[in-house]
Specification:
Shape of chain C: globular
Largest sheet of chain A: none
Distance between the termini of chain C: 29 Å
Largest interface: A-C, 95 and 103 residues
Strand content of chain C: 5-15%
Helix content of chain C: 40-55%
Radius of gyration of chain A: 21 Å
Mean pLDDT of chain A: 92
Mean pLDDT of chain C: 93
Oligomer: heterotrimer
Strand order of the largest sheet of chain C: 2-1-3-4
Structural class of chain A: mainly alpha
Number of helices of chain A: 19
Distance between the termini of chain A: 28 Å
Order of helices and strands of chain A: HHHHHHHHHHHHHHHHHHH
Largest sheet of chain C: 4 strands, parallel
Number of strands of chain A: 0
Order of helices and strands of chain C: EHHEHHEHHEHHEHHEHHEHEHHH
Number of strands of chain C: 8
Chains: A mainly alpha, B alpha/beta, C alpha/beta
């Protein structure tokens, strides 16, 4: 990945917000990050709000800044788990099943009773989805079958509800197994072989971007009316006055404090980011960027177009 | 009963101590036995146990004590003193434990809705309903409204083969008794819909597989998938959900009546008995035998023996075989000890 | 028609006081009133609670639950983030975590379980936590969901309610569907009140406050939120289908409302009803409330200023009419544009 560091810091103007990846990629890391942070931390003294956050979230600028920061963090980090995940990427899938903290405890044996599939909401909705069959693949210890599963669409149909869990007579953790396999699929790039898998790039920036920048999976402005027409006109109305309604109810949107939409102190964000990094998550995020970049290049589109595209395809 | 009868044929006297007022355990309420349905010419369980009881009351060598319990066992083989609940005591050379089993109570498995939904019953209740001596004269009805039940679902493995609830074992007989029940319903009402939801069909013994084939020929449907949920519909019918694992599809069906083929648990007072008799139980809760192959009927205390379902649910025929084997062993040991 | 009662099989230990309240991503983003109401109810009951430590770096963060089930977070990162939250609680002397979100509840419990299965994990996470942010790993005494606290105090709250869950004109107890979050009751059923099949955490509230529960076939079916299924628009058909399945199943019992304890369920069981109307023409119009919103309304708190019912897609006012709770509809919106509602 291209990263540059400049000798001096400069503050760039706000029209940075409208720039796409192509225009930003030449900008040095530290300038990009400090421009973002200075915009983010620009505070209105009278009401202690941070009016630029709403302009920064979900932009190409934020994504590019994330790419650089996370790339740099992965380079310098070198924690035990980061190394473990970097190694795991090159090991067979069968190795993962025996060594990953969740996968190794997930399954012992299966009598194929079908209780999991019969309670699974996804199995009722997607005719080709069968969680019991996934258990069969995992227990087969067969690398080819595992790779085929990781490249398939069906791996991504699970809604992680856990309906399969309470009644399994052998106390298997199928929900955890699927989650673990999905992580592996992304680490190895197998997710690129399915439409649903490629959506993970969009997830990476939607949820991952919110976590990295706001330590909260969802930012209240993410849930736009245009993006959620199924929520109806009442929601659109509420969303148009969301900030005011939140203040009315006692939340702190784009302000310091507790509850919804709050802006965290930088020290808290730093601790949170360290926890993410130390646990090895950034290896995945970095990898997702590399795979997406390559996939975008093969499709002949810019990374921004690719990002938007995978958000819309299902 | 068989132990006492065989002992008497060998000239050995015995005292038969029975907790309840009647003899025969769970057999008298059976609507019919399997695998041949009129095995030995008996039409139902009570005819069989009545015949056994007639025989044992005919010999002076057997002293029958009903509504009596054993409270303690003193002494050692071959000179025990058995203390009874009524305060009296008996001198005995050996003790045979034939205290049977308890059917698993499915109330704790909330997914089946037993107790909450009137049309979900146990196999024991189904059996009594099918019995012409029973509450409906042998007619299959929906307890919720008394109407005829045309659609019956039989759920296998309720309370068995389930590590999660601490019962990893197979109860062995449920597949067979369920098949008997299903076959009975179809025989009496060929228009009925009977579906058995199984994980495996373990009709393992002589004549059992043939009974299973007959059931299918009569039109019993077998669907391979463990039932995960029973829910009551507005009219009282039950919606049953499982996966049809052979077709890889979730299945939901509506039934008038759902019978839970419950597995086995040790007899209710197993721990009390183990303690008062000075014997131990295995990890599955049933009494433990001393040697698996050569002395499968010896309990872990000299002079105490085990017969029948006290070591796990088994067909009537195997209980009878156990009874004869134990009687022979006790007789041989006592004669040797007294020689 | 009579509704079956399935007796709960387990009652778990719920702490009495001193709570560290962790927030929810979804509630904070879409239904902020419901979350803030937890703190208001704690105050009403005189319970001690805190949502952050005293130092600037000791604020609450996401537990990473949504992203973890969105397959973006390594389990070790989740262990560290939750360990950090536990450390913040410890710092201010609190041993009981109460989560606003059920996914958080399951995540915290998953971490607790991990330490039991992997004997050396505790030392490793403690070491990583120290290296990452200078904190120490300390297992909390209790991790419960905020609805557990509500359940424990349901009788105490019942005494303070101004309104009961009955139709104030006829005295008929209202029929309330209890929809318990999957991550509350199914992932660690032994840690819920009543287990996965007979969960009582919401049914208990309904009974205590004068209402009637509804037992319908798809009672324990997931709402379909599905994390990545709802987050990525083309996948959301799944969510919609799950909601429709539940609505169709409960309809014969004509429920007056749906009660939830999960942010995702609260969101989708409410909002997808509009899409379902558009696609099927069927108007279910079943108001969907969280346990805190219902409590707030029955306590007589302002529906718009405090409870925040305006955030709901299915109008809640018809339910208020049944309950006999007055409201000033003009307070609903901040800008005075008329908007027709389904």
């Amino acid at each position: 990945m291209n990263r540059k560091v400049s000798p001096t810091q400069q503050i760039f103007p706000a029209d940075l917000l409208s720039k796409g990846h192509e225009e930003l990629k030449g900008m040095p890391d530290d300038e990009l990050v400090s421009a973002y942070e200075s915009m983010r931390d620009d505070e209105v003294a009278t009401d202690h709000t941070y009016p630029n956050i709403r302009r920064l979230y979900g932009t190409s600028l934020e994504r590019e800044k994330d790419r650089r920061e996370i790339g740099a963090r992965v380079d310098e980090c070198g924690t035990e788990m980061q190394e473990w995940y970097e190694k795991a990427r090159n090991e067979p899938c069968t190795w993962w099943l025996k060594n990953h903290l969740v996968a190794k405890h997930a399954l012992k044996s299966c009598i194929a009773c079908g209780v999991c599939t019969s309670r699974c909401p996804a199995a009722q909705y997607y005719p080709e989805y069968n969680p019991r069959a996934i258990v069969d693949v995992a227990l087969s210890d067969n690398e080819d079958r595992l790779v085929e599963l990781l490249k398939s669409e069906v791996l991504w149909y699970c809604g992680q509800c856990g309906s399969c869990k309470p009644l399994c007579p052998l106390e298997n953790n199928l929900m955890g197994l699927i989650s673990s396999l999905r992580f592996l699929a992304q680490l190895k790039g197998y997710h690129l072989h399915s439409v649903r898998g490629r959506q993970q790039y969009a997830m990476r920036h939607l949820c991952g971007g919110n976590l990295w920048n706001r330590a909260c999976t969802l930012y209240f402005r993410n849930i736009t009316a245009e993006g959620h027409p199924d929520f109806g006109p009442r929601y659109a109305k509420y969303q148009s006055e969301a900030e005011g309604q939140m203040v009315r109810l006692g939340a702190n949107p784009d302000r310091p404090g507790h509850f919804g939409g709050r802006k965290l102190p930088p020290q808290t964000l730093a601790e949170f980011r360290s926890c993410l990094a130390s646990g090895g998550t950034l290896v995945l995020w970095n990898q997702l960027e590399e795979y997406a970049s390559e996939d975008a290049r093969k499709s002949g589109v810019s990374i921004d177009e690719y990002h938007d595209r995978v958000h819309r395809q299902g | 009963m068989q132990v006492a009868l065989v002992l008497s044929s060998l000239g050995m006297p015995s005292v038969l101590v029975e907790k309840s007022p009647i003899l025969g355990g769970r057999v008298p309420k059976l609507s019919r036995t399997f695998p041949f349905f009129n095995d030995d010419g008996f039409h139902d369980g009570k005819e069989f146990t009545d015949a056994m009881e007639r025989d044992l009351r005919a010999t002076p060598l057997i002293d029958v004590r009903c509504s009596t319990v054993v409270s303690a066992l003193r002494g050692a083989f071959p000179n025990f003193t058995v203390e009874l609940g009524d305060g009296s005591s008996i001198a005995a050379g050996a003790v045979v434990v034939a205290t049977g089993f308890t059917p698993f109570d499915p109330t704790s498995l909330k997914e089946y809705g037993y107790e909450a939904y009137p049309n979900v019953i146990t196999a024991t209740e189904l059996e009594w309903m099918l019995n012409p001596r029973g509450p409906t004269g042998g007619r299959l009805v929906r307890p919720s409204d008394g109407k005829d039940a045309q659609r019956l679902a039989i759920v296998f493995c309720v309370g068995s083969r389930n590590k999660r609830i601490g019962a990893p074992f197979c109860s062995r007989i449920c597949c067979s008794y369920s098949t008997k029940q299903a076959s009975t319903v179809m025989e009496r009402n060929p228009k009925a819909l009977v579906a058995c939801f199984y994980m495996d069909v373990r009709t393992y013994d002589r004549g059992f597989e043939e009974m299973y084939s007959l059931a299918q020929e009569r039109g019993v449907r077998y669907i391979r998938g463990r039932v995960s949920m029973c829910r009551q519909l507005p009219d009282g019918s039950i919606s049953v959900r499982a996966e049809n694992t052979l077709l890889n599809r979730p299945f939901t069906g509506e039934f008038d009546l759902v019978s839970l083929s419950t597995g086995m648990r040790p007899c209710e007072d197993v721990n009390q008995l183990a303690s008062s008799l000075g014997i131990t139980c295995g990890p599955d809760g049933f009494f433990l035998c001393r040697e698996w192959f050569r002395h499968p009927h010896d309990a872990t205390r000299d002079g105490v023996f085990l017969a029948g379902c006290a070591t796990g649910m088994k067909p009537i025929r195997n209980c009878m075989i156990d009874g004869a084997a134990v009687a022979a062993r006790v007789t041989a040991l006592l004669r040797e000890a007294r020689a | 028609m009579a509704t079956a009662t399935i007796a709960p099989e387990t009652i778990k230990e719920i702490p009495e006081n001193d709570f560290f309240l962790t927030p929810s991503c979804i509630l904070g983003a879409i239904n902020p009133g419901t979350e803030i109401l937890i703190s208001r109810i704690y105050d009403l009951l005189g319970l001690r609670w805190k949502a952050a430590g005293d130092r600037a770096e000791s604020q609450c963060t996401c537990c990473t639950g949504f992203s973890s089930h969105g397959d973006l977070i390594s389990i070790e990162s989740t262990l560290l983030v939750t360990a950090r939250l536990w450390s913040v609680a410890t710092e201010i002397g609190i041993e009981n975590i109460t989560t606003a979100c059920v996914t958080s509840f399951a995540i915290h419990n998953e971490c607790l379980e991990m330490y039991k299965h992997e004997p050396e994990l505790y030392e490793r996470v403690d070491r990583w936590l120290q290296q990452a942010c200078g904190r120490r790993l300390q297992i909390p005494k209790h991790v419960v969901h905020a609805s557990d606290i509500m359940y424990r105090n349901r009788e105490a709250l019942a005494e303070k309610l101004r309104y009961r869950l009955v139709d104030h004109n006829t005295g008929r107890p209202l029929r309330i569907v209890d929809h318990v979050g999957c991550h509350y009751a199914k992932v660690f059923p032994e840690k819920s009140i009543g287990g996965s099949e007979s969960c009582d955490v919401l049914a208990g509230l309904i009974r205590a406050w004068g209402g009637e529960t509804v037992d319908y076939p798809e009672r324990r079916h997931c709402c379909g939120m599905g994390f990545r299924q709802c987050a990525i628009r083309p996948n959301r058909g799944y969510t919609m289908a799950c909601v429709l399945k539940k609505l169709e199943s409960m309809e014969p019992w004509k429920p007056d409302a749906i009660l939830t304890n999960c942010p995702g369920c609260n969101l989708f069981l409410d909002k997808e009803q509009w899409a379902i109307l558009q696609m099927t023409g069927v108007e279910y119009n079943i108001p969907t409330l969280s346990y805190t919103e219902l409590a707030g309304l029955l306590l007589g708190w302002d529906p718009y200023d405090v409870v925040g019912i305006q955030a709901h897609t299915v109008p809640v006012e018809p339910l208020l009419d049944k309950l006999g709770i007055p409201y000033d509809k003009s307070k609903e919106w901040l800008t005075k544009e008329n908007l027709e509602v389904t």
